[in-house]
Amino acid sequence: MTIHWPLLLKLTNDKQLMLLDSERAWLDERDHLLGQSLLLIDSQGICYHCQDGVLLPSDEQIALSRIVQWVSDYACQNGHFCSAKIGAYSLAQLFDMVRYLEDS
What we know:
This protein is of the alpha+beta class and about 100 residues long. Helix content is about 35%, strand content about 20%.
C-alpha cells in the first residue's frame, strides 16, 4: 500500500501531534517512538499503526470531527487558540493547522 505523505502522528495516550512530511522524516523519528502506542493518518485518511518500526495499514476509520478535537487539544496544550475557533472541513486544512502550530 502506498503511503500518501504527509502523515499525522498521534501518540495514543497524549495530546502531542506531529506532522511527518516524508518517509525520511518518519525514519528520523521512528527510533525515538519505539515502544509507544502510535496512530498515524496519511493525507488520504488511511490509518496506520507502527509494529516493530514498520508502518502497517489499519482498517480503523477516524472521523474528521475526532481529528479536529485532537488538533484543538494540541493547540490549547501549546498555549495557542481556543478550541471553539477551530473549524476544518478536510484533512488538508487540519494538516496545515498542525504545521502552523509546529512552526510557531
